């Protein structure tokens, strides 16, 4: 006997088991809801980009309006020339833009941190939260190393070498390009210890790997030095030395971290064994 067919039920009668219905309304990405739809992440990323652009714009207006104050600091007494009226404004705009981006980096890092935090596990969150100030300090240290050591040494060395056979004229654009090349890359390279610690934190790098790959790492650092530093041996040596120190510092920090982790694990194991022995009694 065939079962009796029933008519289609209305929307109000379909959920007969009182099962929770799917909620299609999008929610804001929070730490409690890290698995939000892609559109929510795109909206948050758009917010990060807008806030970063606002921070850069504010700094740009401040810096561009104080050209007379910071220009002697940037030029550092170098004899630079301009080849036309438009080059003056182009130099001021380009320099103001570069400085404003540099000053906006702490704000941009904070905005990115707020964006990434919901999708990170607790282990990664703790590491990055404690590393942000260190990353900023290392970036500023790298910029200072490039500005006070690499830039003047390489610039005046190359100028003096050119003056032996030529009348050297350095335009404002060329000077600015040279200044950026000899400063910003070092701010990035000085992040090496933080990157190494993070890779070790997520179990992708060990001391054994770094020590066994030391000679290849030195060669890679030499190649990086040749790419970011001016083409003279003296500047290469001055630039390579702190990079090697940073690599060795990374090894020391990872060794120290591994010793702490081993001591903590041994302490926990000892406490666990003591607890088991106590429970057996």
Structure description:
This protein is mostly helical. The protein contains ten helices and two strands. It has helices at 38-64, 67-75, 85-116, 122-162, 172-181, 184-189, 192-201, 207-212, 214-228, 233-280; strands at residues 80-81, 170-171. The chain crosses the membrane at residues 48-71, 91-113, 134-158, 178-200, 212-229. This is Sec-independent protein translocase protein TatC.
- Annotation, overall tally of beta strands: 2
Question: From the alpha-carbon coordinates, what is the Rg to the nearest angstrom?
Answer: 29 Å
- The string of secondary-structure elements, in order, is HHEHHEHHHHHH
In terms of per-residue confidence, which ranges show pLDDT below 50 for 5 or more consecutive residues? Answer: 6-32
* Order of neighbouring strands in the sheet with most strands: 1-2
**DSSP helix fraction:** over 70%
Number of domains: 1
Overall geometric form: flat
Distance N terminus to C terminus?
A: 69 Å
Q: Give the overall pLDDT as a whole number.
A: 83
Query: Which structural class best describes the helix and strand composition?
Result: mainly alpha
SSE order and pairing:
Blueprint (H helix, E strand, L loop, with lengths): L37 H27 L2 H9 L4 E2 L3 H32 L5 H41 L7 E2 H10 L2 H6 L2 H10 L5 H6 L1 H15 L4 H48 L1
Helix pairs in contact: 1-3, 3-4, 3-5, 4-10, 7-10, 9-10
């Amino acid at each position: 006997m065939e079962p009796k067919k029933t008519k289609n039920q209305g929307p109000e009668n379909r959920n007969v088991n009182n099962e929770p219905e799917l909620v299609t309304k999008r929610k804001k990405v929070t730490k409690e809801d890290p698995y939000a739809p892609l559109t929510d992440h795109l909206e948050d990323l758009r917010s990060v980009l807008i806030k970063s652009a606002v921070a850069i714009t504010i700094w740009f207006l401040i810096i561009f309006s104080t050209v007379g104050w910071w220009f002697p600091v940037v030029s550092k007494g170098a004899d630079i020339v301009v080849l036309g009226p438009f080059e003056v404004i182009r130099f001021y705009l380009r320099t103001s833009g570069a400085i404003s981006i540099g000053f906006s980096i702490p704000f941009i890092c904070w905005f990115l941190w707020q964006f990434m935090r919901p999708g990170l596990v607790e282990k990664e969150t703790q590491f990055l939260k404690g590393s942000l100030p260190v990353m900023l300090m290392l970036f500023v240290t790298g910029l200072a190393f490039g500005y006070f050591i690499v830039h003047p040494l390489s610039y005046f060395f190359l100028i003096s070498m050119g003056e032996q056979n030529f009348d050297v004229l350095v335009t404002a654009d060329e000077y600015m390009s040279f200044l950026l090349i000899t400063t910003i890359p070092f701010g990035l390279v000085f992040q090496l210890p933080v990157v190494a610690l993070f890779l070790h934190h997520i179990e992708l790098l060990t001391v054994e790997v770094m020590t066994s790959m030391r000679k290849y790492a030195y060669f890679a650092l030499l190649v990086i030095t040749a790419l970011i530093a001016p083409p003279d041996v003296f500047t290469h040596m001055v630039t390579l030395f702190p990079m090697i120190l940073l690599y060795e510092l990374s090894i020391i920090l990872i060794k120290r971290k591994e010793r702490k982790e081993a001591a903590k694990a041994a302490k926990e194991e000892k406490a666990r064994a003591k607890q088991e022995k106590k429970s057996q009694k």
